[in-house]
Design a protein that fits this description.
The chain is mainly α. 79% of the residues lie in helices and 0% in strands. Helix 3 runs antiparallel to helix 8 (153-172).
């Protein structure tokens, strides 16, 4: 990757990692609803899911190159359906006190959220396809950038966890409204995928 495009790459990584998406909204929602312990347990699954998405993007970009372009649209539809499921689940539990639910979200839910998170998948493919592949097909560069992406997505996601922890007491008084806003935000994520 030429040094001249490195600032653009870093800005791309930051904006895509910090903006709301399914993983960030799930982290915030879990932290608001269940606190730090449950949110960190879910975050470990999110981080592993992000790692697996990133490494799959490295392998697929290396092996398939430009052939993946047509498959992205189908991934978007699948991701939008899953995000709508998350929105429905959040809406369904709106206003239900956390202690009345069977069990808080954990590692497995976090893993599934990011394995099916089209925002993360497209983020990894775009970073590799736009900032690495035009300049080199070196596996070392692809792996290096793929591993660097782990310092952006999961770290920014962790910021959302701690934001939720800090706001938990304030938002617990308005749990139903918070859940409705979270569900609406997830539905907007799904809509943006379908319209893009």
């Amino acid at each position: 990757m030429p040094a001249a495009i490195f600032p653009s790459f870093l800005l791309y990584c930051y904006v895509n990692s910090i903006t709301p998406g399914p993983a960030n909204l799930c982290s915030l929602s879990t932290a608001l609803r269940y606190g730090k312990t449950a949110a960190l347990r879910q975050w470990r699954g999110l981080a592993l899911g992000f790692f697996l998405d990133s490494m799959a993007a490295v392998v697929l970009c290396r092996v398939l190159g430009d052939v993946l372009g047509g498959a992205v649209r189908y991934l978007s539809w699948l991701g939008a359906a899953y995000i709508l499921y998350l929105a429905w689940h959040t809406l369904r539990s709106a206003g239900t006190p956390p202690e009345q639910e069977a069990h808080p979200p954990g590692f497995r839910r976090g893993l599934l959220v990011n394995l099916t998170n089209v925002k993360v998948i497209l983020y990894c493919f775009t970073a590799l396809g736009s900032f690495v592949l035009p300049y080199t097909r070196s596996l070392r560069w692809l792996l290096g950038v793929g591993l660097f992406l782990l310092l952006t997505g999961p770290v920014c996601n962790l910021l959302w966890v701690f934001l939720g922890v800090r706001l938990q007491r304030l938002f617990s008084r308005h749990q139903k409204a918070v859940d409705l806003v979270m569900a609406a935000a997830l539905a907007l994520c799904a809509l943006s995928l379908l319209l893009s």
